[in-house]
Design brief:
Chain lengths: 288, 236
């Protein structure tokens, strides 16, 4: 594909007839940024599955909201935020095993959501879109809520970056030296919940957690300090989102899946480079 | 000056007593070593002294001059930390967090303290290295440096030499002693390694789910408990 045709394609994608594309890209880029930043901390804190659990709760809330013709975002945001605090509680208490509780809650909400939808609006394309995401998912009204909310998430992340780093690296030390770890864990859970709900319409309930996990793991293959991991993760995430969108537009593939596809390829490339570096592949060649 | 005192303190987990009837006072400038078998309540006591755990009976009194954000702590390492992608500098800088309070960013003063402490612990050259690529001894030094950035008064160390080879162990002990002597920082350390610790500590607290001994090192060496434990026999 030549440069001109690529340019034409982008021009076509963002033309006024396709206003939904502009909305999806705007919201998607912001959500990708939020998800990749929070993802670094969630992966390192061994909380990756909380993202997955929350997205299923989000599906349940979305299904119920649609069935009763309520505004999807206004219903699912509070529900998912509450679920996030609940999951955090469970994973901190030693009596119940966190992974089992997450599986319980996520499959439970998925089942409730499907039941409610099948009895009301029926199992139509909406269900498929909720599961796997859709470019058309972002309505005009959603933009007015999504953009400010994701900007708030980003600003909070930057303001609390040092604290989030400290409790991610060593909760015990932070607690012992007088940091309110519970409050910051709740902040992370809160920001994650918002990010997941905002991203769910484009990515789909089944795939949104990949937006959190993939960029973080990919950048950790190569980066050697936390700031670099965070920045690299953000760049990878936005890049993969954008390429995935273009692929989805050209090939008419589901958006969420296309974005994850690009993320898988990136992860593969980074892993390969890291492997070659570790094994000293280049050095061996020089010696010979 | 009395820094921390325990009066009939008892700590329990979910109703099971971990360690009970503790009566001792740590003076400012002391080098206290807490010894005992596995499961004798040493780490629980450290959590109690850090105010992460409230006593289920009795009380722990901390001098008002020692605020919670003025203690340094060297916890046992977790698996998640060993492969953490952060630089040595970033890790040590996080020790200044408690001094920042609610302010979002570190100040020039914080960064200066970090560089001084990196220099003091002879890990300045490792500053830009990745934490997960360091040796076990270097990682402990980094965590000690972070703890040092958080305090001017007291350091609590939980099994700092676990998994280190003998040479690195001695080096770390020497460094901790230097911190105690030259900076006047109170040291409270949990250790298995009773034989080498006798060269450094000024006080010993021996636990076996209760207090078997507390006092100066010389008295411990002459006590029945001390003789048996130092002789390598288990205490019944």
């Amino acid at each position: 594909m030549g440069v001109t045709t690529l340019f034409d394609l982008l021009k076509e994608m963002f033309s006024p007839e396709f206003i939904f594309m502009r909305r999806a890209v705007l919201v998607g880029v912001l959500v990708s940024l939020c998800a990749s930043l929070l993802g670094v901390n969630l992966v390192l804190k061994r909380y990756s599955m909380i993202g997955d659990g929350l997205s299923h709760v989000g599906f349940g809330a979305l299904a119920i909201a649609t069935s009763f013709h309520w505004s999807p975002l206004y219903v699912s945001i509070p529900v998912v935020v509450l679920a996030a605090f609940g999951l955090l509680r469970i994973s901190e208490s030693s009596k119940i095993k966190g992974d089992a509780a997450i599986a319980l809650i996520s499959t439970g909400s998925l089942a409730v959501g499907v039941m409610v939808m099948s009895k009301t609006v029926g199992m139509n394309t909406d269900v498929c879109n909720f599961m796997f995401g859709s470019i058309l998912g972002i309505a005009k009204g959603d933009v007015y809520l999504s953009v400010p909310l994701s900007i708030i998430v980003l600003v909070m992340y930057v303001l609390f970056y040092n604290k989030i780093f400290a409790i991610t690296f060593d909760e015990n030390f932070a607690k012992a030296t007088g940091t309110n770890v519970t409050a910051y864990n709740m902040l992370i859970a809160f920001l994650t919940a918002i990010t997941i709900v905002l991203g769910m319409r484009i990515m789909g309930a089944l795939l949104i957690s990949s937006l959190i996990i993939f960029p973080a793991l990919t950048s950790m293959r190569l980066c050697k300090n936390f700031k670099a991991v965070t920045i690299c993760s953000a760049v990878i995430s936005v890049f993969c989102f954008f390429i995935g969108m273009v692929i989805s537009y050209i090939a008419a593939t589901p958006t969420g899946a296309s974005i994850v596809g690009v993320n898988i390829i990136m992860f593969g490339i980074f892993s390969l480079i890291s492997h070659i570096k570790d094994k000293g592949f280049f050095k061996v060649k020089e010696a010979v | 000056m009395d820094l921390i005192s325990c009066t009939d303190a008892t700590f329990s987990y979910e109703g099971n007593v971990a360690v009970q009837n503790l009566n001792f006072t740590i003076q400012s400038g002391d080098y206290l070593c807490i010894v005992g078998e596995n499961g004798s309540g040493k780490s629980t006591l450290i959590r109690g002294l850090l105010r992460l755990k409230t006593p289920s009976g009795g009380k722990v009194t901390v001098a008002p001059s020692l605020k919670p954000n003025e203690v340094g702590y060297l916890p046992q390492q977790t698996q998640a930390q060993r492969d953490f992608p952060s630089s040595v500098y970033e890790t040590v800088l996080s020790g200044r967090l408690s001094a920042r309070g609610l302010l979002p960013f570190y100040t020039k003063g914080d960064k200066k303290i970090v560089l001084e402490n990196l220099e003091r612990l002879k890990i300045y050259d490792l500053k830009d290295k990745c934490y997960r690529e360091l040796s076990g001894g270097q990682q402990q030094r980094v965590l000690l440096c972070r703890a040092l950035c958080a305090t001017k008064k007291a350091l609590l160390l939980d099994e700092p030499v676990t998994g280190l080879d003998p040479k690195v162990t001695i080096e770390l002990y020497e460094t901790i002693q230097e911190i105690n002597k030259t900076m006047g920082i109170t040291i409270i350390m949990v250790s298995h390694d009773i034989k080498s610790i006798m060269d450094y500590a000024t006080h010993i607290l021996h636990l076996k789910n209760k207090q078997l001994f507390f006092g100066a090192k010389a008295d411990y060496e002459n006590s029945k408990v001390g003789k048996m434990f130092l002789g390598g026999d288990d205490v019944v």
